[in-house]
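Note to self: user wants both folds in one dump. Writing first protein now.
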Amino acid sequence: MKIFIIVALAIFWLAMAYREFTRGDMLLAGVFILVGVALTAYRLTKL
C-alpha cells in the first residue's frame, strides 16, 4: 500500500509539471519535476 501512495504522489508531481509546461512556464515545471523527484527518492529510501 505504501508503494501505491508513493507512485500516486509521483504521478501527481509529474502532472503538475506537465500542466505548467503546457502553459509555457518552464521554470515552474522544472521546479515541480525537481521537487517531485527529490520527494519520491526520499520516500523510497524511507521504506
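First done. Writing the second protein, which came from a different request thread.
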Amino acid sequence: MNYKNFDSVLALASKPKAKQSILDWRPFGKNTLDEIISKHNEDYEDELKKIPWPTNLIEERGRFINVANYDLSEVDTIDLTQFVKIRFIFANLGEISGASLAVEQVKASMNYARREYWLAQISRKPLQPSERARFTPSPVHFSRPEVIADQYELEQWLASLYWYYKVAASEGTPPPPGDRGGAGEGPGGTGDSSLSAKFDIGKFEPGSWTSVFMNYRPYDLFATSEGGEGAGLQRSLTDIASDVSDIAFEKDFSEEETRALARKAMIQEKVLGDVSAFVLNNIDLKTDDELDMDFLRKPIQRMTFDDKYLERTNTVELLTVKLAKPVTTLSKGQCALCEDLHLNKKSSLIVLASHPETLKKIGILKGAVETHSMHLTLPFDATEMLSLDWRENSRKNVQTEKSKKRTDFGMDR
C-alpha cells in the first residue's frame, strides 16, 4: 500500500558492525529494527481492514511507523524539518550513559520542535534502571514499562498506542456503506450507541452543550472534497487523532472515553474553521500573510465534559495581532512578549480571544504591532471550545502543565 502518514522512530543506538544502517540494529538480539517496524505496520493494516476500512482510506488516514535513518553518532545532523516528523525515541540504555552530548542535542531538538514524543528505553538486561532523569525536562511520554527488555513488550506497547489512534480516527470517519451508525459512532464503534448512553441523549435540555456534542457528525468535517481532506482547516484528522491517542493511552481511557475526547477535539476544529473564515472575510490580508489560530485552540488535555447550558453570550470578541516593525527594533520586554506570541515575522497574523488581560499584554507592544478587533456570533456558546488566555498555549505554560497531575479532563478515573 501507499501509506501517506508516518511517525518516525529515532534510534539512540549505534549501527551494528559491518552494517550500513541503523535499520540493521537488533534491539533484543532477535529481529532487526526494520523487521520489528515492518511487522507492526502489517499487523496494524490488518486491524484497519477489520473495521472495515477500504484500501484508499487506510492509505489516507491510517498512521504507520518508519525509521529515521540516523544512529546515535548522527543526531547532530538532523535539522528541525526532519525532527518534527519524529514521534518515537528508542534509546539503547547500554549506550546513552556514555553519550551525554547526543542526548542533550536530542532534548534541545524536542523542545524546539514544539511537539511531544514517546520514549522507549531498551535494554537486554531486564532489571536495568530507567534513565528518566536524562530526558527531563522535555516534552516526552514514557513507554510502559519504561525500560523494555523484551521484543514482545515493545510490540504490544506500540499495538496498544495505535489502537487508541484507530478509535480516535474512526470518530471522524463515516460508517461503511449500509451501516447508518448512531450518535457518536463510526467505523469500529461499539454498535450500541455507547456515547448516547453515556450522555443520556434522551434527557438533556435543548440548547445544552451536550446537545451540540451529541448531534454533531465529526466525519462531515473531514469529508473528501475537491480541496482535499479538511479543506480550509489547519489541522488534519490524522493529527487530531494522534494527539487524542497520546492522551487517551497515557490516561488509560476506555474506547468510549477516547471517542468522546476525539469528538470534542473535532468539534473544536469546526469552530476554529468558522472563526478562520470569519477573519478572512473581515480583514484584507496581504498575499504572504499567514493566519495563526493556535492561540484559540484549547489544549486537548484541558477539555472537560461538563454540560454547560447556553446562558452566556455566543458572541466571541476576537483580536488579530501582527508585527508592524522588525523584531530587531523592539525593546527586550517587547521581544520577550513577541516570542511568547510566536510573532517572529511580519507575515504572521495571530488571532486571539479579546480579554482584559490579553489587551493589557498587547498594550506593551503599542506601536510595534497592528491590531484589529471584531465580533463573531456563533450558533452556540463556543467559549468551552476556545482558549480564553493566550498564555494557555504558550510554550512555557504547556511545559508546566505537563508536569502537573492531569485532572482537568472530566473523565479522569
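Dump finished. Worth passing along: The radius of gyration is 23 Å.
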